[in-house]
Amino acid sequence: MSGTFLYEGKTKIVELAEDGQSVILTFKDDITAGDGAKHDVLDLKGQYCSEITARLMHYLNTKGIYTMFLNYIPPNKIRARKLKMIPLEVIVRFKKAGSFVRRYGGNEGEDLPGPLVEFTYKSDVMHDPLMCVEHLEALGILSREHATIIIDEAKKAAMLLKEFFTLHGFELWDIKFEYGFDESGNICLGDEISPDTMRLRKAGEIFDKDIYRRNLGNPLEKYEVVLNLCRSILL
């Protein structure tokens, strides 16, 4: 299944579907880190991440979170709502890790007092700089009202996913979301939810892209574990 080409990113191709109202996202086997400085192609990675995204977004839809997801097209495609994406990464953190520790100190895995939301500007060249709400307003990226909505929605979505993974014995340390506006101007959760976009741990083991970032081997064995637990969510 293919449509009119719209955009190709590091890990996905976006095409306008035949109905002209939705898009088809094809998940590639590419994996990157360090703002694209590190790049490899891993067989089945696109298939794993597309199905995990489909099942987790469907789960969020059933819980009242508005996501792009419409249906899964095996093995590595998703039909989604057409969105005008906001050039931000919205990170919800439950524990100190990654860039948070590099900026502010503390120990990896140390609890934060509650879910903490960060905005970063999507730019590999600028290394995704951290932004506050006043930055978003001043640069015309997002109004204060829409930023407040996204903060609230991101916390709700992250808490639901945290609860889901906790039931399966996993800890969700943090997660990155991306949002866009639908054709009616409503804010909608888009892009991807997979081990590429979260830190997921179980009994000291890593089940996310940190395996790749830290040169600990091929992460797909652990991605497959995440996929199998997500298959408890019926599509």
Automatic annotation (TrEMBL):
Its EC number is 6.3.2.6. Coiled coil: none annotated. It catalyses: 5-amino-1-(5-phospho-D-ribosyl)imidazole-4-carboxylate + L-aspartate + ATP = (2S)-2-[5-amino-1-(5-phospho-beta-D-ribosyl)imidazole-4-carboxamido]succinate + ADP + phosphate + 2 H(+). Signal peptide: none annotated. One of its GO terms (biological process) is 'de novo' IMP biosynthetic process. InterPro entries: SAICAR_synt/ADE2_N, SAICAR_synt_PurC, SAICAR_synthetase, SAICAR_synthetase_CS. Residues 6-227 form the SAICAR synthetase/ADE2 N-terminal domain. Keywords: ATP-binding, Ligase, Nucleotide-binding, Purine biosynthesis. GO terms for molecular function: ATP binding; phosphoribosylaminoimidazolesuccinocarboxamide synthase activity. Pathway: Purine metabolism; IMP biosynthesis via de novo pathway; 5-amino-1-(5-phospho-D-ribosyl)imidazole-4-carboxamide from 5-amino-1-(5-phospho-D-ribosyl)imidazole-4-carboxylate: step 1/2. PROSITE patterns: SAICAR_SYNTHETASE_1 (PS01057). Belongs to the SAICAR synthetase family. This is Phosphoribosylaminoimidazole-succinocarboxamide synthase. It comes from Fervidobacterium pennivorans (strain DSM 9078 / Ven5).
